[in-house]
UniProtKB/TrEMBL annotation:
Molecular function via GO: secondary active sulfate transmembrane transporter activity
Transmembrane regions: 80-105, 132-149, 194-216, 228-250, 270-293, 314-335, 355-377, 422-443
Start and end residues of each stretch annotated as Disordered: 1-23
Keyword Membrane: yes
Organism: Scophthalmus maximus
Gene3D superfamilies to which the protein is assigned, alphabetical: STAS domain
SUPFAM superfamilies (UniProt xref): SpoIIaa-like (SSF52091)
Name of protein: Solute carrier family 26 member 2
Gene encoding the protein: SLC26A2
PANTHER family assigned to the protein according to its UniProt record, in alphabetical order: SULFATE TRANSPORTER
InterPro entries registered for this protein in UniProt: S04_transporter_CS (IPR018045), SLC26A/SulP_dom (IPR011547), SLC26A/SulP_fam (IPR001902), STAS_dom (IPR002645), STAS_dom_sf (IPR036513)
Amino acid sequence: MARDNAWCAPAEDDGAESDQQQQQPLILERVEKEAGKDCRSAALHRLRKHCSCTSEKAKSKVLDFFPIVRWLPSYQLRDWILGDAMSGLIVGILLVPQSIAYSLLASQDPIYGLYTSFFSAIIYAVLGTSRHISVGIFGVLCLLVGQVVDRELALAGYLTESGIGSGISSNDSAVLLAGQGNGSVVLGCDRSCYAITVGATVTFTAGVYQVLMGLFQVGFVSVYLSDSLLSGFATGASLTILTSQVKYLLGLKLPRPQGWFTLCKTWYSLLVNLGSTNICDLVTSLVCLLVLIPTKELNDRFKAKLKAPIPFELFVVIIATLASHFGHFDTAYGSSVAGVIPTGFLAPQLPLWSLIPNVAVDAFSIAIVGFAITVSLSEMFAKKHGYAVDANQEMYAIGFCNILPSFFRCFTTSSTGCQTQVSGLVSALVLLLVLLVIAPLFYSLQKCVLAVIIVVNLRGALRKFADVPRMWRVNRVDASIWLVTMATSSLVNTELGLLVGVLASAFCVLGRTQRVRVCELGRAAAREHYEDLTSYRGLRTHPGVAVFRYEAPIYYANQSLFKKSLYDRVGLDPVKEKTRRLKFKKKTSEQEEEVADVTYRKPEKDEATAAATVTLDEKSRRSVRSVVIDCSAILFLDTAGVNALKEVRKDYEDLGVTVVLAQCHTSVRDALERGGYCPDAGEDHGGERRLVFFTIADAVRYVQNLSRPTGDTLWC
């Protein structure tokens, strides 16, 4: 057992303090830890845990990997099936127009959006741990995928958008060999075919990243993506999405700009080509907006009373499709329509392996964003309904929701809303019905109607702008992170916005440790409690003793700032004082008769003692013989932090000022011990030297009793 070298005595009132009674320290014994033994036992324990195989452990692994095996046997069929079926039916109906619409955003044909929603709903129901979210097409991820697809299409030589919405019919006559710019070879593949090949390859790569992160148990990365960061990123991406859909609202056929500053480039292109607006598409867009915005607001207002939202989007799609079909909008007015949407499923297809190096970086950002969105929604609903989600299992689930569907020409998915796993399966059945029977009926659906659906669904993200003043009042740091991330994501580059947001968050955390200042503490009148003198009234200070607190860890990046701030608050910089004394000694040795600038308060003392007493600051004339540093807010120390405390103690002791620490955490005590901060017992004061105390009161009493016999005083 090891003894903790700390003073811990019961509290005294002022009268007892005036009696100057010597307090006896309470020696606490800490459990000795054998480092080698602990490491060996921990390593053996982990090996047994991860390498052993029993029937119970194998069963537990299977149940953890397939959560449906756990919850399905306990599913209350009679009580829950009706509600889940109705919810799944409504959600499935809503997914149909949304899946078709978001296909445009991902630069894909409508059929591939239906494929994506169908496969992801089934896979997440089997592998997901959240009981209240569904997985499907998400706008931000579609935007990221669409940017990669357009870039690779341009590199491959496809320079127009004529293939989007033309279907995947074998009658397409415009066939261009891919590989003219990026080295890929897909013989007989037209623009639509190559677009989904790129999208599926990106999706497969992102899924592999997510599964690997789940395998290596790195689900904790989601904690580094704060709510303000994700909200700013989503809002910035929403501005980019909104801008990308304006050309469909106006009926303009414009290529999507590549590279940075796409928002500015897109608006410039829109303004230049504004005279080519298709009046039919513009009128249709305005009518659909006037219908959908108020009806969606009604859904939001009465969502607590409605068992499921009313599918106004589907009603608009059906009416718009009928109007376009019988009005011949595509031939008579040149309006862009969805085109041929085939039924059934295509044969599985492998990703384009040669394309993976080109999209690997893009896929990583897509993987991180998709996982962060899913985990944040999962944890929100889990906390609301009283259960837990496994972040690593969610990584597996989302990863396989991307890997497996990628073989069936699908693109990246994430969480999209709230429903149970059974209702997710019902939604998949609705989508299956559409894929097998109903899909061709949407041939005449105008693309501007799909763009309206996308724009209306951005309302939630765009409303965040109204919350900026409130965010600024609550926390300016979080509001700044939101603004920086939003501006970078929208104005510069979407993927770069995520990186800038992460860096801004990290620098804000580091900046907070740089801006911390040492504060002086005073004691409450009624009890032994210490707080900041500038924050509370009625606090008292101790004669000759100054108590300070530093509210941040001390490490290599802020150790110099800690020392500077402490010296400023004490009113005595020991380094400058030593320099001043050396100059004074040199000057007095040359001119002994010159008037010294050292003011002696006790002329009767000997010369050596008097040299330790100096006048430092005329603005605050109080004597300081001891400094107590409250370490309760110091979470950790590194080597530089320990050395900084050692330097402070040594420099002040050279001037006759005692420095002690109080209220150190156990980890801080261990760091001080390993760093050699505490001298050996018996080094000073007959073996009674103490440098670390459990409470501030103990430290104050100790230094008061320690300093009284000598009477040395520093004025500062």
